[in-house]
Amino acid sequence: MAIIIQEDSFSISKICAELSDKDNVGAIVSFSGHVREFSKDKQLKYLEIEHYPGMTEKALEDIEKKAMKNWDVADIRIVHRVGRLLPKDLIVGVIVSSMHRSNAFKACEFVIDFLKTDAPFWKKEISEDSENWVDERQEDIIKKTNWN
Question: Which domains, ranges and CATH numbers included, belong to the chain?
Answer without folding.
Answer: 2-145 (3.90.1170.40)
